[in-house]
Amino acid sequence: MIKVLTRQNAVWHFGDWEGFQETLTPCWIDLVFPQPEELKQVGEALKIAVPSRAEAEEIEVSSRLYQEDGAFFMTANLVTSPDTDNVESSAITFILTETCLVTVRYLEPRPFEAFAARLQKPGGNCTNSLDVLIGLLEAIIDRMADILEIHSSEIEKISRTIFADVKKEPTPINLNNVIKEIGREGNHISIIRESLTSLGRMSIFLNQAVYANPKAVEIRDVLKVVGRDVASLADHASFITNKVTFLLDATLGMISIQQNSIIKIFSVVAVVFLPPTLIASIYGMNFHFIPELSWVVGYPMALGLMVGSAVLPYLYFKRKGWL
Questions:
Q1: Which of 73, 142, 261, 267 has the highest Cβ tally under 10 A?
Q2: Using CA atoms, how far apart are residues 256 and 151, in angstroms rounded to an integer?
């Protein structure tokens, strides 16, 4: 699908693809899940080679950030987070020409629709394709900050669950489920960090690319702010990653403590029942000459020895605090 936003009479509005081909006004062409023939149409109209999805997903920097035919090609991994249980990432290509911005995406992040709606409102300061790109980047960074805050809150909830007071909890904590939640959030944060890293590289490349622009000083100042925002979000994502690692270690440690407690109980029970077993084994031997066999109190005496030999170790362990 091809979406076209053109600027006419100081106002941005949606136009059709056929009408765009007849004008040279500043525009934003948004290719959403484009077909190969749509990529070819846009490329022929702008006299550029629009990269395919496979080309955009290449991880080499030289394949993601380059200049060709007077246009700047930049690809970054962006995320969308419809809810806290799912974070998707996809490579989105930004192509900046003198009069037009082209975005090629196979994902529908919320900032694109929100920025397009804001762009059409009167009083905007976006007059050319570069302004549109910078405004879109700012909207993307704002949204990524929101996504990062959402998952940071989720990790904080997990932390409170792990270190909650056991006496106040009505039901025991299922640490196996907690590990799954930690792993899921850790995966989300890693996807966000990857996206922030690609955005940081893109802002540096764009800063260098617009150096020859007449408004270079003003634009470079804006891009520095964008770069600082991306760096601060990346630092926060690194902090959250460290916290995820800490929570995972803490959860595994608590599971290990629970397992050790179970093994300790089995060990104490084995020690408690060892003396009675020994006494029962002795008096259960099939020998004719055992002095106690002829005693009237022999049987009660053997039972008393077994009970006493079990109770005494139990009381000793209880006093030592081992139970």
A1: 73
A2: 27
